Amino acid sequence: MRNIYKFPLMPGDTIPLPAGAVPRLVANQLGIDCAWIEVQTDAPARKHLVVKVGTGGNIAPDAMYLGTVLECHGQFVWHYYLVPA
User: Fold this and answer.
1) How far apart are CA 48 and CA 31, in angstroms?
2) Cα angle at 49 between 5 and 31, to 5 degrees?
3) Judging by beta carbons within 10 Å of its beta carbon (0-12, 13-18, 19+), is residue 49 exposed, middle or buried?
4) pLDDT tens-digit profile of 33-77?
5) DSSP H helices in 1-85
């Protein structure tokens, strides 16, 4: 079965995702950055580390891009990635 789930994004936390997960949106909801990701619920999950990178920062070669959020009226731009744990 295919579902969409919300995951709060806390750098250093891990998120269990099955292969083929599709990020749909990253946004700030009530002061917390979150990702909405479409997953196949009957597929085995693997843990992924949440990584938050500022513009110009280094990105791991195996990182999967989730999305970008703006903070302080666009003064700060953060890019979220998932890295297999």
Assistant:
1) 23
2) 55
3) middle
4) 999 999 999 999 999 999 999 999 999 999 999 999 998 887 889
5) none
- Within its chain, how far is the Cα of 42 from the centroid? 20
Sequence letter at residue 85? A
How many CB atoms sit inside 10 A of residue 21's CB?
A: 22
DSSP, res 52: E
Q: For residue 44, give the DSSP letter.
A: P
Amino acid present at 84: P
pLDDT in tens, 5-32: 999 999 999 999 998 899 999 999 999 9
Residue from 73, 78, 81, 4 nearest 38 by CA: 4
* Nearest Cα to Cα of residue 29 among 52, 13, 12, 6: 6
